[in-house]
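New here. Invent one.

***
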Amino acid sequence: MTPDEFADRLDAAADRLPETIEQAVAHTAMIGVGRIRAGASGRPGPNVITGHYRASWEPDRGRRIPYGAECTIGSRAPQSRRLEFGFTGYDSLGRHYDQPPFPHVGPAIPAMEQVLKAQMLHAAREALA
C-alpha cells in the first residue's frame, strides 16, 4: 500500500468513525438502562412495587460532539437519588427518614464500561474496514 492509498483509507475511516461511535454509545446506553432496570428489580437494589420507578430510567438519546458522541442515562423519579445513596434526615416537609442505600446504578457501571470498550474497538475496526 502506498502512502497515498493509506492516507485515503484513513480519510475514509475518519468519515465513517463519528457514525460508528454514535451507534456504539447508543448501544452501550441501552445495555446500561437494562442493567440499571434489572438492578432496580429487587434486592440488593430497591424492591419493585409498581414498576414505575424501574421504567423511569431512560437514556437521553445523546448528541454528536466533535469526534464522538455522548449519552446520559437518568431518571426523573424524585426518589432515584435516595434509593441509590440512601437518606437520613428530615425532608422539606419535616418528615424524618432513615433509609439505607439500595445501589442499582453504581453496580451497572463496570458492565457498561466493558461494553463501551468493546463497542469502541468494534467501531474503530468497522471504520477501518
